[in-house]
Amino acid sequence: MTRTKLIDPRRRVLVAVAVAVAAAAGLLATTACSRLADTVPTTSGNPSHSPVAMRLDKPKKLLGSWNESVDRRLRKPAIKDTDGFRKLLKGEPTSAVGTAYTPVEEQYSRELGVHRPGDNRVILVNGVSGTVTAPNATLSHVFAARPAITDVVPVPPGPLGGVAGCGSSQSKDGLTKFCTWVDDHTIGMVTFIGFPQSHDQHDLFRQIRAEFEHRAP
C-alpha cells in the first residue's frame, strides 16, 4: 500500500517565506528573466522631487483588518531584508520597517506552535526612508540584484509618486509576488505569499504603501 505524504500547510507557508526572502535578497538564480531595466526603464511613474521628507511607520492593522504577525519566523526575515535597502540610501536611514501581516488572528498551541487557522496568506513589508538620489536607477537596481524575481513590469506608483514595479517568483510551493516602490525619500517592498495566482495585487500594493509612508514630523 502506497502512502500519500501530506504537507503541513504551516510548513508550506514557512518554506514559501524562505523562498520569498531568498528571492528578495538576490540569493537565488534563474534564467530567462524579464528585467525592469530591459523593458520600460522610466515609465513606471514620475519621480517625486518633493522637498517634504517622508518616513515609514507600521500601521496597527493593515488593510483595515490584517494583524501584525507575532511569529518571529515570519518577521525576522522581513527585518533582515531591510539591510540591503539601507545601502541604497545616501547617508543613514531616518526610519526602517520590516514586518509581516496575516489576515486571521494567530493562535498558539504546544502542539502546533504559532499558527493561522483557515488562511495561510502572508504579506511581508520592508523598507527604509532617507535620501534617494536616483529613484529610477534605484528601482532598476533593486530588481537587477534579485534575479529570482521574474516578469518584472512597471506599475503606477499611486498618489505618493515616485516609480514602482512588480514581479514574481515561482517555486514548488506556489507563486510569490513582489512589488517595490522608490521615491526621493523611501524605498519599500511588499511581498504577497499564498495569494491566488489570478489575484492582481497592484491596488493592494498601492494601498499598503499609503498606509506605511507618511510625512516626517
TrEMBL record:
Highest taxon listed in the record's lineage: Bacteria
Keyword Signal: yes
Keywords: Signal
Signal peptide: 1-37
Record keyword Signal present: yes
Name used for this protein in its record: Uncharacterized protein
